[in-house]
Amino acid sequence: MSLDKDWDSIRPERGFRAADAGMGILRITLLFGSAAVALALIAAPLLDSQTRSARDGFAGVDTMSTGTIGHRDTYTLRRSVLQPLPSSVCVIRSDGSRSGEC
User: Fold this and answer.
1) What end-to-end distance do the CA atoms of the chain give, in Å?
2) Which among 94, 95, 98 is positioned nearest to 83, based on CA atoms?
3) 85 vs 100: CA distance, rounded Å
4) What transmembrane ranges does the database entry give (predicted)?
5) Which of 14, 35, 71, 102 has a CB 3.0–4.6 Å from the CB of 98, allowing a cystine?
6) What is the per-residue pLDDT across 51-95, written as a single tens digit (0 to 9) for each?
């Protein structure tokens, strides 16, 4: 029996512990997570500069569209529950003329 105790003192029992596996998974997760963050910090400016150079190919061209609406006379649209149909509309122009179902 003393031989068994001597062997255990030289080479202790190496059993699988769940706590060791949990720490290993945590370390791997932290390693890959920090690698992903570092890659994102490096890749984002590089990709932005590439798209910016592609946008500079349109130098001198305004890609924004604008438009105007000509000035016309003003008018008022009126609807009333007293009109014969609910879809009846009365248009009153700025000069006082009326059209539609007034």
Assistant:
1) 115
2) 98
3) 12
4) 25-47
5) 102
6) 666 666 666 666 667 666 666 778 888 888 887 787 888 888 888
**DSSP characters over the chain:** -HHHHHHHHHS------HHHHHHHHHHHHHHHHHHHHHHHHHHHHHHHHHHHHHHGGGTT--------------EEEE--TTSSSTT--EEEETTS-EEE--
Global pTM exceeds 0.70: no
Six-digit token string for 57: 């190919």
As beta bridge partners, residue 77 has 91
Q: Cβ(75)–Cβ(91) under 8 Å? A: yes
The two three-digit tokens of residue 100, written as one number: 């539609």
